[in-house]
Design brief:
Elements (H helix, E strand, L loop, with lengths): L2 H13 L5 H14 L4 H13 L30 H26 L16 E4 L8 H8 L4 E5 L8 H9 L1 E3 L4 H16 L3 E4 L18 H9 L3 E9 L3 H5 L4 E6 L11 H24 L29
Parallel strand pairs: 1-4, 1-5, 2-3, 2-4
Antiparallel strand pairs: 5-6
Helix pairs in contact: 1-2, 2-3, 4-5, 4-6, 8-10
Length: about 325
Amino acid sequence: MNTKAYLRFFGELAEKDEIPRDVYDTVVAEIAKDGKMTERVYSLYLQELEKRRMFDTDGAPFDTKNSAKTDGTYVYKHVKNPFWYILHAFWSTVFKLIGYVGAGVVFGVWRVKDRKKLKKIGACITTSNHVGYLDAVLTRRAMGGKKQYIVVAPHNCKYTVGGAILRSATELPLPVNLKGTRSFNDMLDYVAARKAAIHFYPEKSMWIGYRKPRPYKEGAFYYADKLDIPVVPMFYCFKQPKGLRKLLHLPKAVIKIGEPIYADKSLPPRDRKADLAKRAFDSAAAMYERFYGIPLEYADADDASENDLTANPENTIKDER
């Protein structure tokens, strides 16, 4: 963990009033106590956010320099550029391979037993928890060979060589205004027509290693209803690593996939996205509870336990995978 980056990150959050001053003072004091940014301090930070139900707050530093400008000027579709389609086909294939190998090497995922639930499903929206900088390889691995696009924040699609590769492969940056939304909507119509999966992280922010599902934003579910396609909830769980993975401090993940859910057309349109969001979250919560064998409970403000929310908790996992 980069101590300077985290100190700057916490300072910016405090300056913008996105975290209370006492949380800032606490984490800075704990960094000083450890002599650097550590997993213990990071776990304490997430604990404080959980206790205060600040689930939208950013969980880790990110760089917005050279971010994609999704204000209506960003080009999602390149209908008049055949060279782009060649690049797209190439990099999409590369990312399928990266998803397989990366999920195995980084997260220890070589098999996805629940993928049978995706059979015979065409276009769909998939959702998952957002637990790390590289968890997109889990998202890609979960889909197998299915076409997939991943909706991300604009800073993940930078105007750099790496950003250009990601843009041409799978990533769709979120729009920042109404004009950008029109282009984004057109792109999702195009993607759905290709019977691809569109992945959203409905928790909004990334909390590294956080095991519990966090409340979902409704944007993904608005599009599921608008495009009239199912939502497939996914949830990334973690086992205690063993052997070489434990020695190298590498996580051991398991990809769980829930049953597809559909918008309830008997509800008024304004209520459908909230209903879908609730059912998708409930599915993720059920996967969490079955996997870890404990109820989903968030810490209270007066809860002093540090074992409920650590980057690598020693929870007992009851069911066999």
